[in-house]
Amino acid sequence: MRAKQCKHNSRNMKRSGDSEGEKRRKRRKLLQELGDQKIPFLGPSDQGFQQLWNTSYSGLALRKSCLLPAELHGGVHAALLTLRRKGCFLRDLVRVRERDVFTAVSRVLLGEPGHTYSYLDTRLFAIPWHSTDSGIKGLNCCDPDFRAACKALWELNTFFCSDVPQIKKGDRLTHCTKGEAKVKLGEEGDTESKHSEDSKNSDGGDSETRQSEEGDTESKHSEEWDTESKHSEEGCSNQEAEWENEFKQGSEEAGFSNVKPYKFSVSVGSDQSEEEEECSTSALETMSGTETKHMGLAAQEKPVAELKHSLSDYHIEDEEEEFVIGQGCSKSSPPISNIGAANFNVTLLNYMDPSAMSHLKEEPYYGMGKMAVGWHHDENLVSHSPVAVYSYTCHGDKGDSSEGGSAAKSSWRIGLKVAWDIHTPGLILPLESGDCYYMRDDLNSSHQHCVLAGDTARFSSTHRVAECSSGTLTYIQSQCHEALSNLHTDPETGSHSLLALQPTTLQHCEEIHNEVEFEWLRQYWFQGQRYARFCSWWTGPMENLEKDWKLMETMTMLFLATVEEEGQAAEGRREMAEILLSALTDRHQQRQTWRERCHSSLAQTLPPEEAPVDRPFWGVDDPSMPLPFDLADIINRVESLIWRM
């Protein structure tokens, strides 16, 4: 059996290696074809911008800051600054290509109670919205200021749940009053249209690890604007260096549920007054000024459209460098009729100050400027669900609002491109502080987006409909209940025994055992526990999960005793032994990986309150275990037993 398993693993590894090699080959061929050319992109000041938006980026909608209630802006800004002041924005230590890297952006997850979000082998544990003044079920898990900040972001989430479904098909740009549009958008136009050189000192909100010192690669689960580490957060500098080398080489070779309508919601329909239409046109003409004027189609020396059509078969970007910040799971508040998939259940908050970054990567395909977050799709979302993003810029660590600041500052922008397509021009959209944008329909899956850094620090609140089938506390508790239902405890003696010995039942229990340990307990003590000093909501549930885990350890020992019992039929014992060996081998390998992660050189650089914890509640190190055992020794015993059968 052991030989068969090894052969199977070898086949999988070979297949994976072949796949990676093929992706690299395709990427190299694409770079050779592109050579030194840049793909065209259009900004608001370029001719054809509106048509391009309408035809190729119709799933994108912009909600200007002047159309959101002032009360909402005030609450969100105060909340973000409060969380920043308390030190809640932390960099994640994620796993990329079997090594740990810090994300470039700092972040924190808020959402429905008991929800989580996973990306790059890292699970984020959502701090509850605290949507009621009394707290979560009467639990006093954090201070009043913290609860108020969480509640303000819940109100923003509620606004998005109500507002996004109101955007009609065909709506591209929402409107301000004529005066606001000309003043606000005019300023943005004068400052935002600058080339990448103008944003060399740009500050990023939450960018991915790609931009981090350790790497600029963007995680496959990255958020649209995570600039810190997610992608650096989900990227790493080694990956970035590898990508840069390949890029240069290629060029050289080429010659939520139930959310009550927010009281400040603003409906957006197709019926617009003449003044609004005029304002929209004015906004479109003035937004971004000269920033992208020289970067449009006419500026390209060699139109990419002349490239061979066969290139459309290749993705512009190495998918391993995409960092889609995954997304957490959760239930939403009270439903709105016809809200559809806009029930946002979590928000991933990001923060980045570009001036604090050693370097930011240049956008490589279009020449759009400095990237805070590289090209990516947002992942771990309910299929075709929308994403809503709120952008807020400020003056670095002091947290002062950038509104009313120098007009010479370069603003943040979002870039979009059609995935697997080098013929359709890219799109660049300037963002003022307080602007929101929505990605609807299939935009997130069919397109990729990046975040281009401005000259000031930035927060973003990225609201998502996270896919939560296996990412909630309720889910894992039900899994524990299912596994422990096979354990009988004698009420008089306290001794334990297994109720069912069917191989499929035993295998399922061991799978749940591994899931509890590695997807929840290890993840929590690796990084999730860092947030307990801000909000202790997860402390009790994780302690209970640990108790359930210890009972599952007992079940494993009972399973082993059954396998080693001579009275069992040989055929049945062999099948059970193979199931046990597979589960224990996986467990042993994962424990070694987690111990290495906890004691890695990067982990050791973190302050004590943020450092990963290698909990000794398993194995021979823990005297409180009723049946402590050496896992490696048990694996040898089971292997020996199988060979004797």
Largest sheet: 9 strands, mixed
Q: For the residues shown, what is the average pLDDT?
A: 73
Question: In what range is the share of β-strand residues?
Answer: 15-25%
Contiguous uncertain segments of 5+ residues: 1-17, 177-340, 404-408
Structural class: alpha+beta
> What is the CA-CA span between the terminal residues?
11 Å
- The helix fraction, in percent, is 25-40%
Individual helix count? 13
What's the helix and strand layout?
Elements: H1 2-34, E1 41-42, H2 49-56, E2 60-63, H3 70-85, E3 90-96, E4 99-111, E5 116-119, E6 122-125, E7 127-128, H4 144-163, H5 178-192, H6 237-253, H7 274-286, E8 327-328, E9 346-352, E10 371-376, E11 387-395, E12 400-401, E13 412-418, E14 426-431, E15 436-439, H8 443-446, E16 447-452, E17 457-464, H9 473-484, E18 487-489, E19 496-498, H10 503-526, H11 539-564, H12 570-598, H13 631-644
Account of the protein in words:
This protein has 645 residues and is an alpha+beta fold. It is built from 13 helices and 19 strands. The chain has helices at 2-34, 49-56, 70-85, 144-163, 178-192, 237-253, 274-286, 443-446, 473-484, 503-526, 539-564, 570-598, 631-644, and strands at residues 41-42, 60-63, 90-96, 99-111, 116-119, 122-125, 127-128, 327-328, 346-352, 371-376, 387-395, 400-401, 412-418, 426-431, 436-439, 447-452, 457-464, 487-489, 496-498. The strands form four sheets. Strands 2, 3, 4, 7, 9, 11, 12, 15 and 17 form a nine-stranded mixed beta sheet that branches. A five-stranded mixed beta sheet has the order 1-14-13-16-10. Strand 11 (387-395) and strand 12 (400-401) form a beta hairpin. The longest helix is centred in the N-terminal third of the chain and has 33 residues, at 2-34. The chain is globular. The protein starts with a helix and ends with a helix. Mean pLDDT is 73; it is low at 1-17, 177-340 and 404-408.
